[in-house]
Amino acid sequence: WVREKERIVYLVERWWAWKWRHWELPLETVLQLRSGSYQSCSPAAQRFSLPPLTYQKHNNLAANFLSPGTGCEVYGNTNAPRAITYSAVIYCLRCMVGHDVPLNQGCLKPITFVIPAGSILYPSDTAGVVGGNVLTSQRLVDVVFKAFGACSASQGCMNNTTFGDKTLGYYETVAGGAGAGPSWHGRSGVHTHMTNTRITDPEILERRYPVVLERFMLRDGSGGRGQFRGGCGVVREIRFLRTMTLSVLSERRSTQPYGLCGGEAGQRGLNLLRRADGRCINLGGKCAVEVHPGDVFSLNTPGGGGYGPVGDVGDGGDKGDGGEDGEDHQQQGKRARTAGGAHTSLPTHHSQRGGSLANYAATQESA
After folding, report:
1. CA neighbor of 155 nearest in space, from 92, 223, 221, 90
2. What does the CA dihedral 177, 319, 198, 196 come to, rounded to 10 degrees?
3. Nearest Cα to 62, choosing from 96, 113, 117, 122?
4. Which of 48, 234, 272, 310 could form a Cys-Cys staple with 71, CB 3.0–4.6 A?
5. β-bridge partners, 287
6. Residue 146: exposure state from Cβ atoms within 10 A (0-12, 13-18, ≥19)
7. What is the 3-state secondary structure (H, E, C) of 113-149?
8. Span 315-364, pLDDT tens digits
């Protein structure tokens, strides 16, 4: 039986080896990239840095994702296990490939990852990693999409907010702005890429917890301007009715979500604590602080980056999700495509050939 099992394993391995030699990877035909390297760099915070990540396509069967410049493991909790990098890369590739791709380990067969051990993307077994799942993952997606020039950066964050004491606890993630692309405006007040959780209804929040939701609205003007405008972030303000501990885990408080092809960057986020005595304190991107009755936490989430030169047909100005006359981004996108014909000043992108990115663009325009 042992010999028969070894023979079966040998035959299966030979079959897969033959299949990979004769299967043309969709990346080569759909992305239509020249052989060579494509780089992008994104500092994830003042304390550490992500890549520059380099994508190399050597032939029809293999692609390498290299991150030799990745910063070392950090003392905090924003380290990301290798599985996070794998997930971010496969997500980006599935978005850009022009047809549905099964979500399994086989998708990564032709992909080679070079991640230095001891880095923020390959930390030790004892490193803190909770922030890697909710923050570093988002920044990795930005890096990969920028390397391919697929779309502008989204908010790059989940704006994790937690408060409580010994008797209660509450945790939420808060939306922001989505990045614009070669044929669509970014949506406002949405989660992007690595999450899509629903937030608690205000009535339920105020009934079950000693807080008052004072404001929850779009942050007008926070999206980057361009031929296609980045989505706006949100403003969420919570007033506390008793002493508790507030913890915030967020990104894009020091660097702005990038724009592409002449589009402007989105506004960075801002976390403020207004004390009952009138003081206003900038909490930074990551902190834990004691709050007291009457204190108000103001969370201002980042906007998405814009795409294309500012002032071209399709620019949304500073009107958030629509113009003053009520025209939404769907109509603006139609004007951009009909007024001047094809976008001759912009490159041909994956979203114009089909695939998940095209579906994303269609959903953005139909919302």
Report:
1. 223
2. -30
3. 113
4. 48
5. 248
6. buried
7. EECCCCECCECCCCCCCHHHHHHHHHHHHHHHHHHHC
8. 444 444 443 333 444 443 333 333 333 333 344 444 444 445 556 566 55
Specify burial of residue 111 (Cβ count, 10 A radius: 0-12, 13-18, 19+).
middle
Closest CA to 37 of 10, 63, 2: 63
Output the six-digit token pair for 289.
Answer: 């602080």
Closest CA to 190 of 233, 142, 133, 141: 233
Please answer whether residues 164 and 238 qualify as being in contact, where contact means their C-beta atoms are separated by less than 8 angstroms.
no
Distance of alpha carbon 269 from alpha carbon 306, whole angstroms: 16
Q: How far is CA 4 from CA 1, 12, 18, 189, in A?
A: 5, 12, 21, 58
Contacts of 102 (CB under 8 A, 6+ apart): none
Unique residue bearing structure tokens 């007291």: 292
Neighbours of 100 (CB within 10 A): 10
Task: Provide the token pair at 45.
Answer: 């915070």
pLDDT tens figures, 23-67: 444 443 334 333 334 445 555 433 334 444 444 444 444 455 655
Kindly tell me the sign of the dihedral angle through the C-alpha atoms of 180, 186, 191, 193: negative
Rg of the Cα atoms in the chain: 22
Give all strands (DSSP E) within the chain, no chain letters: 36-40, 53-57, 63-66, 111-114, 160-164, 169-172, 211-218, 234-240, 244-249, 270-274, 280-282, 286-291, 296-300
Q: Among 325, 338, 341, 337, which residue's Cα sits nearest to residue 361?
A: 337
Q: Three-state SS for 56?
A: strand
Residue 159 CB contacts under 8 Å (≥ 6 apart), including other chains: 173, 174, 175, 176, 248, 250, 269, 299, 301
Closest CA to 107 of 122, 133, 121, 86: 86
CA distance 216 to 109: 44
